[in-house]
Structure formats: structure tokens, C-alpha cells
Amino acid sequence: MNDRTRTIPSICFECHSRCGVLLEVKDGKLVGVKGDRTHPFSNGYTCPKGRAAMEIIYHTDRITRPLVNIGKKGAPRFEETSWDNALSVIAEKLLDAREHWGAESVVLGSGTTRGMAPYLNRFLSVFGSPNFMAPSNMSGGPIVVGSSATCGFALIDPDYAATSCMILWAHNPEASWPGLYMHDIRQGLKNSAKLIVIDPRGTHLAKKADHWLQIRPGTDVALALCFINYIIENNLYDKAFVEQWTVGFEQLKAHVAPFTIERCAQITWIPPEQIKAAASTFASAPRACIGPGMGGVCQANDAFDLNRSLTILSAITGNLDTRGGNLNCRPPTGKRSCYGPDYSAFNNLPKEQAQKKLGLDTYPLLEFIPIPSPPQAIWTAVLDEKPYPVKALGLFANNSVCAYPNSARVVRVMEKLDFMFAVDYFHTPTTALADVILPAAHWTERDDVEDLLMKNHVFCQQKALDPVPECRDEKQILIDLAQKMGLDSYWQSVTEILDHRLEPVGMTFEAFKVKKKVATPIIYKGYEQKGRFRTPTGKVELYAEYLNSMGISPLPIFREPAESPVSSPDLSQDYPLILTTGGRNLVYYHSSHRNIESLHKKSPDPELQIYPQTAERLGMHEGEWVFLASPRGKIKIKIQYDRDLHPQVVHSPHGYWYGVDNGWQRVNINMLTDDQQLCPVTASVPIKALLCRVEKINQLINQGQPI
Ligand SMILES: Nc1nc2c(c(=O)[nH]1)N[C@H]1C(S)=C(S)[C@@H](COP(=O)(O)OP(=O)(O)OC[C@H]3O[C@@H](n4cnc5c(=O)[nH]c(N)nc54)[C@H](O)[C@@H]3O)O[C@H]1N2
Ligand SMILES: Nc1nc2c(c(=O)[nH]1)N[C@H]1C(S)=C(S)[C@@H](COP(=O)(O)OP(=O)(O)OC[C@H]3O[C@@H](n4cnc5c(=O)[nH]c(N)nc54)[C@H](O)[C@@H]3O)O[C@H]1N2
Ligand code: SF4
Ligand SMILES: [Mo]
Fold first, then answer.
1. Distance 400 CA to ligand 3 centre (A)
2. How many domains, in total, are found in the chain?
3. Residue where a domain stops, chosen among 309, 327, 345
4. What is the CATH classification number for the domain harbouring 287?
5. Do 162 and 311 lie in a common domain?
6. Which SUPFAM superfamilies did the record assign (predicted)?
């Protein structure tokens, strides 16, 4: 290594795993990304996305100047402008909207969090709007809501390394969370833990599991209730815990009684003996944990009930808040953590203004377990002006058009807005609809603190490089915008922001850079010390009386997916296959990374996984481009044989658009997904269980490429 090369430890922000990395910098440029072996979760692991940081930063397509649209919506012409002018335009438009329509008519949104939630929320509370939009309703939010409503904390920290049985419930961490979970999972398996995988696809982990339950998409609640019933009927539950720490056991028992193994087998298409064997393995394990997929169990019309049932399953087997079970970790940053109450616009506005938060009128539980406003509630406010009009939207790190269901509707929303600005590294179908685009600094070019999903840790993300000229740290963008708008109580500098976040840790960011990470001790059975769970009764709410008053079922209910061969047999005549979407691909993050050559060439085309005979019966063969149609639209996709799938189930990846003219319309699966039949409690979107059909493309026009 040349003596001019410096190595700076940091945290990778290309995905939620947040691996520890060592950034190698030479002459002010990033030249290498290596894994940090001292990181407690990733232990030196990096994936191709993280290692592609150089390609991202120095990509010729990177947006490096603020741009204003001098063309029309739908036919944009972007012209470079100064930061001063771009921020003045945004400031004027947002203030204008506030004056005419009220502060709530302005929404700021972020995609799956790249750490922006605290800074955007604080900006909104200073500005006066309660409307922070994020995809939480399809990504982790239903876990938080379902489990917090049941036991007072979120079921997001399975203690894989110390367990004797783990369930990966709609969860394939080898692709989706390799840096955060795989080390612990391997550790647990090395210590002879049993592995149960519940997934319609035969993933690598499913194939090596002790029990792989190949479930019919969208029927998970039936399976969870059946597990609960089996465990109660066979006296396999933890009687002491149930007696002392739960309420409503008798009601639960009666409620789950109809979910016999035989009935569940009919609903889920899983052979009865497999259900029985898996339930018995789980219940008889001395320590067991449930690892719920952050998207897998959050994208269904009964996502609330699913996450409630999983929490109940963990509780009645005595695995809540125990070593080897499902932990209740607290980040050292406490109230100043990423979604901490100190930053929530909802908490920091006068009650009357906070109550205007979009989504609250339909999803009342979100007042008590606040997750961000669901995009679908914002869309209704834009298009139908209900319950009031939204006029201006600012998006940070989000490609709504490709990432969110019903892309055609998302485009209509963006065309109708009076004003929209977007902050991104690259042009996307979403930035194409913006009036102003701002260039963001890459994660290697900015300082931050990271605690989201980091169990009991907070990590230092350290700036290693100056931003490519004119790209700007998004925290600085908000500071500059606040100054333009006269929002004087916003922070004045990035250092002030970071020191504020670290105050509960008792450290400045300067000191934190040396320390790199801080952890709080893990406490087991915290409820014993406190004498209660953080729920209305202080107990685990098996039957939750308090939900009744909000019109929510006090017991978890299995609902057929709104679109399924059972609930819509007529529709399934036309659309005979069950479609599940969005199984993660290691080389991409949602619709991102598509233009990164080293990643793109690993997975260039959208591929529909389908059982070979199902395709062949339709006269289709592997590698052939076909149409995939749902009641909402039609896209092109390539056939990929998958012998492990059920013959009636297909899987499509999400996020494809790049490199195809109008790709968002022609190869993006979200042209086919539904944003109407939402979970009535969490607004979760049903994108894991829909109906579809595959159609052959006229050979004359099919030249083997998307057209
Ligand atoms: N059909 C289907 N659709 C899905 C899913 C599914 O399973 N099936 N999953 C859903 C889930 S769980 C989620 S969370 C959403 C995610 O949706 P999004 O968060 O919108 O994800 P991306 O498509 O990756 O868009 C992120 C954009 O941010 C930009 N970007 C990356 N890093 C930064 C940064 O640091 N700053 C800025 N300003 N920009 C940055 C990228 O270039 C990209 O254009 O997608 C959802 N979409
Ligand atoms: N490489 C990469 N990693 C990512 C992301 C990414 O885009 N790319 N996105 C990140 C984000 S924002 C999120 S929310 C997480 C998501 O994290 P996870 O939800 O863990 O995502 P997956 O690993 O795809 O696991 C979901 C699994 O559920 C299965 N499945 C589909 N339908 C059903 C069903 O009805 N029931 C059951 N039981 N299983 C079903 C799928 O086949 C898939 O294997 O991933 C994060 N990590
Ligand atoms: S898994 Fe890859 S992209 Fe995600 S944090 Fe780790 S290195 Fe970065
Ligand atoms: Mo997500």
C-alpha cells in the first residue's frame, strides 16, 4: 500500500445491514472498500454493492449540480442552476404552499431510510407539517405496530447466535441482510440450532432447513394461528409465563381452536405432517426465536394480525425478551435514535396540528405507535384532496415511481402536485417528475451516526472524502433550506446535529469518531425488573381489549388475500397464477444500483421464477421474454425455471426500469401491484400475494429484448 493511502473506518450505507468498512483514500479519492473485521455484526463481510462505492461516486451519470426543470411535466428539460437559486425556488414554493393551504399541504418523504428520518422530522416540526412520508407500511412498520401493540416492543431482534431453534418467517437474509444477521445465524446453526424456513420459494436457506414449509403466499396468519393452537392443545406452552404475564389466554385458546393442522394444511397448501413437525420442533426447543422478514411479513392485507400472531407465538412459548429468543434491544441514543420521539414531527407539534398527520383518520392505532405516513395516504390527499389537499412534496433518497405499488397512480400523483423536489445521486423515473433536483453527497462523503436496527449499538459513519464538487450532505441541504425559509430554530450546523444525536451517549461526534461504536448492555426479561410490559394492561395482550374501542379485532384474524384463488375465484379464471414479488437480490437495493456496470451485469434482466412444466404447458421456455399481466397492467419479463416453486405460484423481482425506454412502465413489476386493498390497521400493501397470468409475446415482435 502506498504511503499516501489513508484508511478510514466507517459504516456502509448501501443497504440496511450497515456493515463495518475500511475506506481506502488516495489523493482525496476513494480507491478501495474493505470489510472491517472488528465490526461486531458484519465481522469483515462486504457484498458487491458496498464494494461498488467507487463506481457509484465517480459514475458519469451522477448528478453533481442542482437542476431546475424548464420543460413540462412528462417532458422535462433540466437546466443547471446555482445552489442559491435552487434553494430559493424550493423555499418560495414551500412557503407559498404553507400560506395558501396550511403547513400540512407540504410533505417531506424519504425512501427506505438512508438515515434521514430525524433530520426531516425536525425540519417538518419547525416548519409546521406533521407529514413525514416513508415506506414503513410495507417495510418493518407492521412488525413495529403488530408486536408493540401486543408486548410493547418490536420483534426485530432475534437472538440467532444463542438460540436452539430459529424460524426465518418470510425472510431470506442471505440476500437481504447478509451483514447484519448471517454471522449470528451461522453461529446458531454451528451450535446445532434447528432451522425452520417459511417461504414459498426454495431459497438456499430453505433447502438446508430442518423444516421448510412451502406456504401458499398470503396465508401466514392461518399458519401462525395453527402453530399456536397446536402448542396450546398439546400443552407445549410456557404455563408460568402465560399465567403471570399474559391476558386473554382463554379467549385466544377458543379463537385458535378451529385452526387445526388439517384445516391449516388446506388453507396454506403445506402438507399436514410438515406443519405438525415444525410446530413441535419450535415448541420443544429450550430457546427459540422468530426472525420475521422486514418486507416478507409486512406486505399483506393482514400484516397487523400476522405480526400480532408471531409475537403471541413467541410469548406463549416463553421466548419473549429472553436469551436465544426475541430480544428487546435499546439503542444507546434512546429518544434521539433514528425514529426516536425527540425528532418526531408528530410529537413536537401542537396537538391540533399533529392530529392532521395523514393516515391517522383511517389508521387510528398509528397515533399511539407512530410510524410515518403511508405513501398511499399521501397519494389520496394529492389526487382526491382528502382529507385535505397536499400540494408540495420533497423526496430524499426515494424512487416512488418504481418502488411503490401501482406505479401508474404514483405518476398521476406526481403530475398533479404543484411542486416537487427530489434529492438523489442519479436520474430516475421519479426525479424526472421533479421541478428541482438536488445532488446528494454519497455516504462516504458525509458524517452520520447510525442506530436504526443496530440492536443495542450506535455506530459512527465517518466522512472519508470531500463530496464530488457541488454534491452536498443532505443535513447541510436542510440547514441551508431552513435558513432561506427563516426557520431559525432548525440546527445551524452538521456538527450541532450530530452532537445533538449523541447527547444521550454523553459524547461529541469528534470523540465518537475515535470510539467508532457504543453499545448498551442487553437486558433479558426487562419486564421482570419493571414489573410490566409496555402495554395498556402491563401484560402481553393475547386478547387486546383496548383494540376493540378502535374498531380493531382484539384477536388476530386470518384474512384471505383480497386477490386469491379462494377469495376471487372468478378473477382467477383469467389470472390463474399466484404472484409474489420482491424477493431480494444481493446485487441491487430496490430500484437502485441498476446503472452500476459491475452489478448490472450480474442480473441484467427481470426474471420471472416459474415452475418449468407450468411454463412449458403455456408453450414458453427458459430465457424467453413474455408478458406478465395482472388486473392492473402488463409488463415484459424473462422466464426463469424454478423447480422448487409450487406449479401455481410465480415470483417476480422488483426494481427493474433502467436501460429500457420507459422502463418504469414496461419492465417494472409495480405496474402490476395493488395499492388499494390495504391492511386496515397498518396500511400494509398486498404485494406478496396477487393474481397474474403469463402471456406469450407474438414472436414477430419478440426479438429477445424488452420492447
Ligand atoms: N413489488 C415490490 N415493490 C417493493 C418491495 C417489494 O418487496 N415488492 N419492497 C418495498 C420496500 S420494503 C421498500 S423499503 C421500498 C424502497 O423504496 P425506495 O427507498 O424508494 O428504494 P429505491 O428504489 O432504492 O430508491 C432509492 C433512491 O435513492 C437514491 N439514493 C441512494 N442512497 C441515497 C442517499 O444517501 N441520498 C439520496 N438523496 N439518495 C440516495 C437511489 O439512487 C434511488 O434512486 O420499495 C418497496 N417496493
Ligand atoms: N440486497 C438487498 N437487500 C435488501 C433490500 C434490497 O432491495 N436488496 N431491501 C431491504 C429492505 S428495505 C427490506 S424491507 C428487507 C426485506 O427483508 P426480507 O423480508 O427478509 O426480504 P427477503 O430476504 O426477500 O425475504 C422475503 C422472503 O419472503 C418470501 N415470501 C414471499 N411471499 C411470501 C408469503 O406470502 N409468505 C411467506 N412466508 N414468505 C413469502 C420470499 O420468497 C422471500 O424469500 O430487505 C432489505 N435488504
Ligand atoms: S451488505 Fe453490502 S451493501 Fe449492505 S451494508 Fe454490507 S457491504 Fe454495504
Ligand atoms: Mo423495506
1. 22
2. 3
3. 327
4. 3.40.228.10
5. yes
6. ADC-like, Formate dehydrogenase/DMSO reductase, domains 1-3
The DSSP 8-state label assigned to residue 697 in this structure reads: P
Ligand 3 neighbours by CB, cut-off 6 Å: 12, 14-15, 17-19, 46-47, 49-50, 178-179
Cα-to-centroid distance, 19 and ligand 3 (Å): 5
List the residue whose alpha carbon is closest to atom 23 of ligand 1.
591
> In CATH, what number is assigned to the domain containing residue 460?
3.40.50.740
**CA dist., res. 96 & res. 127, Å (int):** 12
Q: Is the pLDDT of residue 707 over 50?
A: no
Which residue range forms the structural domain that includes residue 241?
Answer: 158-327
Instruction: Compute, in angstroms, the gap from residue 174 CA to the centroid of ligand 3.
Output: 11
Whether residue 132 lies inside any domain: the answer is yes
Side-chain half-sphere CA neighbours of 342 within 13 A: 14
Q: Which three cell numbers stand for residue 26?
A: 488516495
* 341 and 323 housed in the same domain: no
Going by their DSSP bridges, the two strands 194-198 and 211-213 should be labelled as parallel
The protein residue with its alpha carbon nearest to ligand 3, atom 2, reads: 47
Over 90: is that where the pLDDT of 141 sits? yes
CA distance 491 to 497: 6
Grid coordinates given for 505: 451517549
Whether 485 and 632 share a structural domain:
no
3-class DSSP state for residue 679?
A: coil
What's the CA-to-centroid distance between 112 and ligand 3, angstroms? 14
pLDDT cut 70: percent of the chain above it: 98
The CB of 397 under 6 Å from ligand 1? The reply is yes
Considering only CA atoms, which residue is closest to atom 4 of ligand 3? 15
**586 CA distance to ligand 3 centroid (A)?**
9
Residue 400: CB partners within 8 Å, gap ≥ 6?
109, 111, 375, 410, 414, 430
Asked if 302 and 387 sit in the same domain, the reply is: no
Cell matching residue 6: 489513508
Give the pocket of ligand 2 (CB within 6 Å). Answer: 15-16, 112, 139-140, 169-172, 175-177, 198-201, 203, 215, 217-218, 220, 293-296, 580, 583-586, 588-590, 688-689
Calpha distance 582→466 (Å, rounded): 35
Q: Judge if 590 and 676 occupy the same domain.
A: yes
> What backbone phi and psi angles, to 5 degrees, belong to 373?
-65, 135
> Which atom of ligand 3 approaches the CA of 49 most closely?
3
Over the stretch 68-88, which tens digit does the pLDDT of each residue have?
A: 999 988 899 999 999 999 999
Ligand approaching nearest to the C-alpha of 294: 2
In the numeric block, which cell numbers belong to residue 412?
A: 398521476
Q: 87 vs 91, 118, 195, 423, 478, CA distance in Å?
A: 6, 21, 53, 12, 10
- Residue at 314: amino acid letter: S
Atom 18 (ligand 1): residue with closest C-alpha? 111
Instruction: Identify whether residues 298 and 194 lie together within a single domain.
Output: yes
User: Does 652 map to a domain?
Assistant: yes
Residues 248 and 337 in one domain: no
Q: Which candidate, 496, 419, 473, places its Cα nearest to that of 107? A: 419
Give the H/E segment covering residue 518: strand 517-519
Residue after which a domain boundary falls, among 504, 519, 534:
519
CA of residue 586 to ligand 2 center, whole Å = 11
Residue 97 scores a pLDDT above 90? yes
Res. 2 pLDDT band, cuts 50 70 90: low
Helix (H) or strand (E) segment spanning residue 514? helix 509-515
Distance CA 606, CA 462 (A): 35
Cα–Cα distance for residue pair 450/457, rounded to 1 Å: 8
Query: Has residue 131 got a pLDDT over 80?
Result: yes
Residue 479 lies in a domain: yes
Query: Residue written as cell 451519470?
Result: 61
